[in-house]
Each structure stands twice: as C-alpha cells, then as structure tokens.
Design brief:
Layout lengths: L11 E9 L6 E13 L2 E11 L3 E11 L2 E4 L8 E5 L7 E4 L2 E14 L2 E13 L5 E8 L3 E9 L3 E11 L3 H7 L1
Antiparallel strand pairs: 1-2, 1-12, 2-3, 3-4, 4-5, 5-6, 7-8, 8-9, 9-10, 10-11, 11-12
Length: 177
C-alpha cells in the first residue's frame, strides 16, 4: 500500500512553531482538520488555522485531495498551493508560476521537536525559478506536513511540527475559561 504523506483525519490538530523575518518572536500555529467528506479517491477537508503571536487570528479553508493532487487553499508560509502530485514519485516536477517544484526524495530522515521521522517526502521549490530563493519542505508518512525551511529575497522562515493531537472539544475549552 502506498504511503500517505498528507492524511486527512477528522478532529486532528497539528501544532507548529513558526519563525519568520516578518515578525519578532516565535508564533504558534494550530492547523485543525475539522471535517473530512468524500471518498478515498476524492476528499475535501475543512481546516482551521489559528495563528498566535501577540494576537490570535483564525482562518477557515479547505484542503483537497484526489487521485492527482493534494491542494491546500491556505497555509502557514504562503497562501494556498499544490502541495504535491499523486501518486508520489521521486523526480516528479511541477510549476506553480513563478515557482518550480520537484519531489527530490522519498527517503529523507528528519529529527525535530515532534519526533524522528524516516522515509519523508522532500519537496524542493525554486522560488521564481530559483532567482528569488529556495524552499524545502518535508512530509512524513502517516503524519503529513512536518517541516519547511523557506528562504526568499523578501523573507526567511521555518515551520516545525511540535505535536499532533485531537482537536480540543470547544464546549469543554469554554467551560475551562
């Protein structure tokens, strides 16, 4: 069975550390997969991104996954993007103007705060075809998006997965407060 590098599991929370030259300090970002609809070959997930630095902002967006692509309508570093084509294969390239992308590895190992991951999918992005910088992002099997190092002319940033958990029950959270 092929590895799933972007699982869409309902009520799953991904907590990330986000550092960028666009702001001082370290932001916490939560990506919550609230609801998943469709069949295995065509799924749509309703996601909520909660960005906390000094203030908190919340964005709702969709993640689409079908036989050909995983596409996010929003994201931490940049807005929406084609994450990667399906089925995954090393050497596959795609353009998302003005950027050029390639799956450069399916065997990378990564040790981050959330744990040690092996057989990671590694995507190299040449920003503006390489003229404006590069980005490298990693997806771990059965986990998803775990790390990104983005280095462009206008900003640099790092996103690192801290933990994966269940989305907290909103009623219980309100009762605590």
């Amino acid at each position: 069975m092929p590895k799933d590098y972007f699982p869409l599991k309902e009520k799953t929370r991904y907590e990330y550390s986000y550092k960028s030259t666009e702001f001082d300090g370290e932001a916490k970002v939560f990506i919550d997969i609230l609801k998943v609809s469709g069949k295995a070959d065509k799924q749509v997930a309703e996601a909520r991104m909660t960005f906390t630095l000094r203030d908190t902002s919340i964005t709702l967006y969709k993640i689409k996954k079908d036989k050909k692509w995983v596409i996010t309508e929003d994201g931490i570093v940049i807005g929406g993007r084609k994450e990667f084509p399906l089925p995954v294969k090393e050497g596959i390239k795609w353009d998302e103007y003005p950027d050029a992308n390639e799956i450069v590895s399916l065997t990378d190992k990564l040790s981050i705060k959330a744990g040690k991951f092996s057989d990671c999918l590694k995507v190299l992005t040449k920003i503006a075809g390489g003229d404006a910088g590069t980005a490298v992002r990693y997806y771990a099997p059965s986990v998803g998006y775990v790390f990104e190092d983005y280095s462009a002319e206008d900003k640099t940033c790092k996103v690192e997965l801290l933990s994966v958990s269940k989305v907290p029950d909103e009623k219980k959270e309100k009762e605590k407060k």
